[in-house]
From TrEMBL:
It comes from the Bacteria. The active site is at residues 18, 36. This is acylphosphatase. InterPro entries: Acylphosphatase (IPR020456), Acylphosphatase-like_dom (IPR001792), Acylphosphatase-like_dom_sf (IPR036046). One of its GO terms (molecular function) is acylphosphatase activity. Its EC number is 3.6.1.7. It catalyses: an acyl phosphate + H2O = a carboxylate + phosphate + H(+). Residues 3-90 form the Acylphosphatase-like domain.
């Protein structure tokens, strides 16, 4: 199990993006959180079990809500954090 941090750029605030990510991450049994950043990006942090699950989470982030427009996703592995659910943080 690894923990990754994702930074999502584009039209991702004020368009229900966090809610979309949170609901779909829960449906697919991901654990972690999503939150808005002051610079207009969205940060997501999640526990990822395998390269296939990493691709699945990236696809979820790319899809976004109907009114969002994802332009760029940067991600990196970070020190392990244990999560028990997926939540929206404020």
């Amino acid at each position: 199990m690894k923990t990754y941090r994702f930074l999502v750029s584009g039209k991702v605030q004020g368009v229900w993006y966090r809610k979309f990510v949170s609901e779909n991450a829960k449906k697919h049994n991901f654990k972690g959180y999503v939150k808005n950043l002051e610079d207009g990006r969205v940060e997501a942090v999640a526990n990822i079990e395998s390269p296939e699950r990493l691709e699945e989470f990236l696809e979820l982030l790319k899809e976004g809500s109907p009114f969002s427009q994802v332009e760029k996703i940067e991600y990196e592995e970070i020190p392990f954090i244990e999560f028990h659910d997926f939540e929206i943080r404020y």
